[in-house]
Amino acid sequence: MSASSEPIPRLHILLGADRLSGEALAGSARLYGTGHPVALHLRARVSAARLFRAAERLADASGRGWCVVNGRPDIALAAGAHAVQLGHASLSVRDVRSLAAGRDLRVGASVHEPEEAVAAARDGADFLVVGTMYPTPSHPGRAGRGPDGMARVAAAVSAAGHPGVPLLAIGGVDAGRIEPLIDAGAYGVVVGRAVWETPDPEAAAARLAAALAAAGR
Fold first, then answer.
1. Residue 4 CB neighbour total at 10 angstroms
2. Half-sphere CA count of 111, side-chain side, radius 13 A
3. What does DSSP assign to residue 88?
4. Which residue, 15, 86, 115, 216, is the most exposed by fewest CB within 10 angstroms?
5. What does the alpha-carbon distance between residue 167 and residue 93 come to, in Å, rounded to a whole number?
6. CA distance 176 to 147
7. pLDDT tens by residue, 153-193
8. pTM as predicted
9. In angstroms, rounded to a whole number, what is the distance separating the alpha carbons of residues 99 and 42?
10. Measuring CA to CA, which residue among 23, 90, 12, 87 is closest to residue 57?
11. Residue 117 CB coordination number (10 Å)
12. Is the Cβ–Cβ distance between 113 and 150 less than 8 Å?
């Protein structure tokens, strides 16, 4: 089944540079076996060659899951990844649409404010990563927007005529915070520490997927 015909996974897990090779990469790929569709995001400042090799391997191993490359649509296309996630320093959604014309690649965009979300949805983003939901060490000093912030983004996107664009909550998300975010309009979540800073990442991913299923809209 092509990425364009698959539903977007509700659980997205970030992979840093320390997860992109050897046994660490193999362990990352095992998260595809949780029993739920999982998207693995390669978010690391490493060489293009290393990023490509990791993306190609994860795309091949994905099964019902997805491989998502952050910020590099060229590598996503070359590796056969399912999607690219665009940050504020990346090409625009429209540019990537042109680059990937005729190719099976979903495009996501990172947003913070309702206006950003509406613009990205209007430009054709397939999903939006909305942050920062809760305080997190990766963004020191930044207050979390919480479910109220998610609700404002969801309302703006819907009012602009794009109610079907999935919103993924990022920033300090754990299993206990999933239900209020879903109630506020999130479709799914993007996590890192909630999986990797646990004794059993596979079990942690399964718990998050179960929490998403229980809070399903």
1. 11
2. 30
3. T
4. 216
5. 16
6. 13
7. 999 999 999 999 999 999 999 999 999 999 999 999 999 99
8. 0.95
9. 20
10. 23
11. 26
12. no
Sole residue written with tokens 């997927």: 209
So what's the pLDDT on residue 127? 98
**Terminus-to-terminus CA distance in the chain, angstroms?**
24
Q: In whole angstroms, how large is the CA radius of gyration of the chain?
A: 16
Closest by Cα among 134, 161, 162, 163 to 149: 134
Map out the domains of the chain with their CATH numbers. 3-212 (3.20.20.70)
Encoding tokens for residue 126? 């397939």
The secondary structure of residue 33, as a DSSP letter, is G
**Would you state the structure tokens that stand for residue 89, as one six-digit string?**
């320093």
Quote the CA–CA distance of 41 and 140 in Å, as a whole number.
22
Beta bridge partners of 86: 109
Orientation angle between helical segments 114-122 and 146-159, nearest 10 degrees? 40
The SS3 assignment for 25 reads helix
Do 68 and 81 meet the contact criterion of CB atoms below 8 Å apart? Answer: yes
